[in-house]
Design brief:
The complex is a heterodimer of chains A (510) and B (461). Chain A is built from 17 helices and 12 strands. With 510 residues, chain A is an alpha/beta fold. Chain A folds into 3 domains: 137 residues, Aspartate Aminotransferase, domain 1, CATH 3.90.1150; 56 residues, no CATH class; 254 residues, Aspartate Aminotransferase, domain 2, CATH 3.40.640. In chain A, the strands form 3 sheets. In chain A, strands 1-7-6-5-4-2-3 form a 7-stranded mixed sheet, sandwiched between helices. A 3-stranded antiparallel sheet of chain A has the order 10-12-11, covered by helices on one side. Chain A has a two-stranded antiparallel ribbon with strand order 8-9. Chain A is globular. Chain B is globular and about 80 Å long. Chain B is built from 15 helices and 17 strands. Chain B is α/β, with parallel strands linked by helices and 461 residues long. In chain B, 38% of the residues lie in helices and 14% in strands. Chain B has a 7-stranded mixed sheet, with helices on both faces. The chains are: A alpha/beta (510), B alpha/beta (461). At the A-B interface, α3, α4, α5, α6 and α7 of A face α1, α2, α3, α4 and α5 of B.
């Protein structure tokens, strides 16, 4: 009954037990499955003149030999990628408490919406008159996002959260420039995501890091000590990456605004506060949202996402253009485009990740305002349940009510038994759960960051907590957890070798 | 109250009791009362799924330009290619769709191997040894390529061919406001870039990066060797913006001596999608590997010696380098990369070449038929074209698009919509207002093209 994973038949709750169901042999690459002369493609009969490549491409530009790709039958193609899919954990398979990433269940409705011919089959260069439905989606989504964040207007162009961050920093730059000011520094707490300081650098600013206090929030005194009129703004995540609400946010906002700086809201954790409190009401000037986290786009193995940026009234004129807008009554079309007078310019080749935007609108329409508030409540409830339940088995560095996620620590396990956060995460894989985020935020030793999300049931939380308690007990009993995982498609991989002897393509194999 | 939340009332009560709370509101006691919203969000009430789906279908119906209503001749970086059922079925598997960045390689070999295969295919198309796991889209890939080039050359001046898609050029300039790069627009003449160095102009600052399109956005094939020679003379890096479909029949950018190859991968299995999510392609010469932006998958072994894949050279990435990073990219477009891997697997060696050939045949047939009409003129002279082409019609391009739509065609893109009303270094004068950019993919039949040509002849009078 207790195989390596220790799962009991009939146990409820969100753990993956189906993989690997068909053995654990490595899957050959598509190139190894290739047989010269085999093919699977079929193309439309066109009736075009039968010009050869020599008639179409001048010799100087012509390729001598075809690009070598795999040559497989459709049946082999299906077998290959289906077997690969069986070597992949996913939200649909089991609980995925990866902190900071909001791996909630995503309604299949949104997949259907994204596949509608009337949405997926529209060329982005079509004029407004021929794409009124899309423009209406954009305008309605912008309005909804502004209501949720308490902001005045938004750009939907940024393709991901990091793109939103950089867009926000360029808005900050444009704002100060328009006022004839040249400011050089942006403040970031030491608990911030790595994208924040990287975006600051690419936005042309210097990062000033402020420490967290003993409660896990921005150290207000330390913040005040670095404030002057050279500060362009601050980037904050609230709730922060420790899952804690920055209770001093009003004082922080006041202090930043006093020196003429702007407040940037990193929306990575927006899921926690939907319908409860809004960045705009906290004093933020610029807000990016990770629609793929909060408004349910499946993460696709690492993208696509969407990172719209909403702003307060004084920044609207700097937003990227062209912007989808409602046109005045009597216009030829209901919707059109307008570029703000002092726009920072385009940040996307077209309009943003449109299908992700449509998914977000559909998700918001199903939930409505009340439903979004319930999302936040359940997300916070689940995280606090996990915090309370696991506070005996694990260290809780900041043991006070959290928001949507909780940061535990394996520091004691490491000190007493040599069991690291990494080992805990790897062992958890054997129980059929994805591992938490480990070693982030950087300010917590042996961090295990757990974000259950609102779509996991109490039974799943019970099973997850029980698994983590079992692991802590195993560590105490001296079991060598650094051997885990053993039941996954592959075991721990040699990352050092991958970096030392780089094999980034099949052709680089020796 | 439709939603996807599993908690029963009993469970809610049980969980609150466990936490010593009496209401859900108390969960938010840490939020200062003055900041709390104190009302419901001003959004419509929630709707059941069938109602939402019906509404979204209605919005889709309001998009007249959908490809199942209008025969598509629009390109400009987004193309109406065949995406077969098998590609949608495989890449749409929920194991790929609902996973995240492969932080735990032991349970992410599916995504990792698919991306490894994708990287191999992109590298082969580019003619370079290394390709990353993708970036957001072509424009974003261009921005990252220029950042790489500036870092590698140590010079911030960028010579940007006006043959690069106008929106991409605009994006590059937007982000240059932060990095301080100096972007110099290099104009086209008859569809070909006229580099400052060619005329011996010594008054121009030496570039750190050159960017050229292959073919450029007007469909023209340019001699990349000219740009390469300037790079050799100045130490600049050569960034080639390449079309991945045309690449199947063109001498590879790597062979031309590209340092970095970027492109828009939408043509490889991703629907038109009104512009996103798309797929940024990014390949580099070996010497630039350590500056590669975004994620990279490498092959390795597990502790039992079994072949395995893992994201590698992580020391380059933003979450480790933080403020010292030269790229802030965190995610990429993995799902679109999986679509591309499956699409290229389906096409294979012969299929991709066939798609490229059919595009070229259709483009030539359409171009010659249009140029045979009274009053229709070429914009790029005799420069050889592939993939798409620009023409001047007797009426404004925007008007032509509207009239063609009434007859069942998305008749290309109005050049003025791409360059702005005043034109730019790629097209000028009357060509801007009267210009049309027309693309013909392998999906277009001869009768569709003939119908389009006849209709255009009718509506431009």
């Amino acid at each position: 009954m207790t195989a390596v994973g220790g799962t009991a038949v009939g146990a409820a709750g969100g753990r993956a037990t189906s993989a690997p169901i068909m053995g654990s042999d490595a899957e050959p690459t598509l190139f190894e499955l290739s047989q010269s002369g085999r093919s699977s493609w079929q193309l439309r009969t066109t009736g075009m003149p039968d010009w050869d490549v020599d008639d179409l491409v001048p010799a100087v530009y012509r390729r001598d030999t075809p690009v070598p790709l795999a040559e497989v039958s459709e049946r082999d193609l299906v077998g290959h990628f289906t077997r690969l899919s069986h070597r992949q954990f996913s939200v649909d398979l089991g609980a995925y408490p990866l902190g900071s990433c909001t791996m909630k269940y995503n309604p299949k409705l949104c997949d259907t919406v994204a596949g509608l011919p009337g949405l997926a089959g529209v060329h982005p260069g079509a004029p407004a008159s021929l794409s009124q439905g899309w423009l209406q989606i954009f305008v309605e989504l912008e309005e909804a996002l502004c209501e949720v964040t308490g902001m005045a207007a938004a750009t939907l162009q940024p393709a991901a959260g990091a793109a939103g961050e950089l867009t926000g920093l360029l808005l900050m730059r444009a704002y100060h420039s328009a006022r004839g000011e040249s400011r050089h520094r942006v403040i970031i707490p030491d608990s911030a995501h790595g994208t924040n300081p990287a975006s600051v650098t690419l936005g042309g600013y210097e990062t000033v890091t402020v420490p967290s206090d003993e409660r896990g929030c921005v150290d207000l005194a330390a913040l005040r000590s670095v404030l002057d009129t050279d500060v362009a703004g601050i980037m904050l995540t609230n709730p922060n990456t420790l899952g804690l609400f920055e209770e001093d946010i009003e004082a922080i906002a006041g202090a930043i605004h006093e020196v003429g700086g702007l407040l940037y809201y990193d929306g990575a954790n927006l899921n926690a506060i939907l319908g409860v409190v809004r960045p705009g009401d906290m004093g933020f000037d610029i807000v990016h949202m990770n629609l793929h986290k909060t408004f349910a786009t499946p993460h696709g193995g690492g993208g696509p996402g969407a990172g719209p940026v909403a702003v307060s009234p004084r920044l609207v004129e700097f937003l990227p253009g062209p912007r989808p807008v409602r046109l005045p009554p009597g216009s030829a079309n209901d919707y059109g485009y307008a570029t703000p007078a002092q726009s920072i310019g385009r940040v996307h080749s077209w309009h943003g990740n449109a299908l992700v935007l449509a998914r977000a609108l559909a998700y918001m329409e199903v939930h409505g305002g009340d439903g979004l508030r319930r999302v936040a409540e359940r997300a916070v409830l689940n995280a606090n349940w996990i915090r309370r339940r696991l506070s005996d088995a694990y260290d809780v560095p900041f043991d006070r009510p959290c928001m949507h996620e909780v940061v535990l620590s394996a520091a004691s396990l490491r000190k007493k038994y040599g069991t690291k956060a990494l080992d805990v995460g790897k062992r958890l894989l054997e129980f059929g759960f994805h591992a938490p985020t480990v070693y982030f935020p950087l300010i917590v030793d042996e961090a295990l960051m757990i974000e259950p999300t609102e779509t996991e049931s109490l039974q799943t939380l019970e099973a997850l907590a029980a698994a983590l308690e079992t692991i802590a007990a195993e560590a105490a009993s001296g079991e060598p957890l650094n051997e885990a995982p053993r039941t996954t498609p592959v075991r721990r991989v040699d990352e050092a070798r991958a970096a030392r002897t780089l094999v980034p393509t099949y052709d680089a194999r020796s | 109250m439709p939603d996807y939340l599993p908690h029963t009332d009993d469970e809610l009560a049980q969980m609150l009791a466990f936490l010593g709370l009496s209401s859900l509101d108390e969960l938010f006691a840490v939020v200062p009362a003055a900041l709390r919203l104190g009302r419901g969000l001003d959004l419509a009430d929630g709707s059941p799924e069938p109602d939402v789906l019906a509404r979204m279908e209605g919005l889709g119906a309001a998009n007249r330009a959908r490809t199942d209503r209008l025969v598509c001749f629009a390109g400009g970086g987004a193309y109406d290619h065949e995406v077969p059922p098998v590609v949608r079925a495989l890449a749409g598997r929920s194991e790929f769709v609902t996973s995240y960045t492969p932080y735990q390689p032991e349970v992410a070999q599916g995504i990792l191997q698919a991306v490894f295969e994708f990287q191999t295919m992109v590298a082969r198309l580019a003619g370079l040894p290394v390709a990353n796991a993708s970036l957001y889209d072509g424009a974003n890939a261009l921005v990252e390529a220029v950042n790489l080039g500036v870092a590698a050359s140590g010079r911030q001046t960028v010579w940007l061919s006006s043959g690069v898609q106008p929106h991409w050029r605009a994006v590059l300039k937007t982000f240059a406001a932060g990095t301080g790069h100096v972007v110099v627009d290099v104009p086209l003449e008859n569809g070909e870039t006229v580099w400052p160095g060619e005329s011996g102009d010594s008054g121009v600052e030496a570039p750190g990066v050159l960017v050229v399109g292959y073919p450029n956005y007007l469909g023209c094939l340019e001699d990349i060797g000219v740009a390469r020679r300037i790079c050799d003379a100045t130490g600049a890096l050569l960034v080639v913006v390449a079309d991945p479909v045309a690449a199947a029949i063109l001498r590879s950018p790597g062979e031309w001596g590209a340092d970095v190859v970027v492109g828009e991968g939408q043509a490889l299995g991703t629907a038109l999608s009104f512009g996103g999510p798309y797929l940024g392609l990014f390949a580099v010469a070996q010497r630039h590997v350590r500056r590669l932006p975004g994620r990279l998958v490498g092959e390795t072994v597990d502790i039992e010696g079994t072949r395995a894949y893992v994201t590698t050279l992580r020391a380059r990435e933003q979450d480790i380098r933080r403020e010292k990073a030269t790229s802030n990219v965190c995610t990429n477009q993995t799902l679109m990369a999986v679509y591309a891997a499956v699409q290229l697997g389906w096409l294979g060696t012969t299929g991709l070449r066939e798609v490229a050939l059919r595009c070229a045949r259709g483009t030539r047939f359409c171009r010659e038929s249009l140029l045979a009409l009274d009053g229709v003129q070429p914009i790029t002279g005799a420069t050889p074209t592939l993939r798409e082409f620009a023409i001047r019609t007797p009426i404004p391009g925007r008007l032509a698009i509207e009239r063609l739509a009434d007859e069942g065609y998305l008749g290309g893109l109005a050049l003025a919509d791409l360059t702005g009303d005043d034109g730019d270094g790629s097209v000028t004068g009357d060509d801007v207002e009267h210009g049309l950019l027309v693309a013909v993919t392998e999906k277009r039949t001869r009768s569709e093209v003939e119908g389009f040509v006849r209709t255009l002849d009718k509506v431009v009078r």
